[in-house]
Each structure stands twice: as C-alpha cells, then as structure tokens.
Amino acid sequence: MEEKGMSENKQYENEYKVQAVKLAKKIGAVKAANELQIPVNTLYGWIRKARIGSLDIGCGERSPEESLNIAEENQQLRKRIKALEKENKRLSEMNEFLEDAAAFFAVSRQKSGKNKG
Question: What is the pTM of this model?
Fold first, then answer.
C-alpha cells in the first residue's frame, strides 16, 4: 500500500507541494504532514520556500493581510529610498560647496600670506 509521499527521497510534483502547503496553512503543518504521511520537516521546507517565493503556490497563497502588509512595507521602503536619495543629493551638493570653499580659502590664505611677507 504505497501512498504518495511515503517513500524517502521521493520527488514530489509541484502541485502536490502547493496543495500540501495550502493544507498546512488551514490545519497546521504537523496535522497536514501526518494526514499526507510526509515528514513534517519536508513540509516545513516547502512552507519556507513558499514564504520566500521559490515555491510558487499562486496568488491564493498569501492572505489579504500578508499582501496588505507587503504593499505597505513596499510603500514605506519607497518613501525611505526617496528620502535617502534626497539626503544623498543634499550631502553631495554640500560636499561640492565645501570643496569649493576650502579651495577658495586656501587661495585666499596664500595671497594674504604673501602680502604679509
């Protein structure tokens, strides 16, 4: 009575992994693993892959809350990048100004040094 998922080192089909992860989300990983008769660590691996995006389980995988959080986080990160780019530009301009000022004062000092001598 060889059921799907019982033999070790078995290659599982992508769709099987997808359904297993979805089941785990509904009833919990341990219950799902027992029900599917697969090692719980294997299932945890698939869940991890789904979370980082290397196992594509379709748009139904993320809860609306997760999607909202990701969208919010992206928005926050975009704002932060904009602010950092603005600050970077300001600092670059300041740096240029200071370099010009330093050069100007170095020349002025040389002139005034010559005049005194």
Answer: 0.41
Distance CA 55, CA 7 (A): 22
| Sign, Cα dihedral of 37, 38, 40, 46 | negative
d(C-alpha 45, C-alpha 54), whole Å? 11
Q: What are phi and psi of 7, to 5 degrees?
A: -75, 145
* Distance between CA atoms of residues 1 and 26, nearest Å: 27
Contact between 51 and 12 under an 8 Å Cβ cutoff? The reply is no
Output the pLDDT for position 116: 58
Closest by Cα among 65, 64, 20 to 44: 20
DSSP state of 11: P
Tens digit of each residue's pLDDT (9 = 90 or more) over 6-46: 444 567 888 889 889 989 989 999 999 999 999 999 999 99
Sort 22 into a burial class: Cβ within 10 Å, 0-12 / 13-18 / 19+. middle
Burial of 42 (0-12, 13-18, 19+ CB in 10 A): middle
For the record, the structure tokens of 56 come out as 């594509």
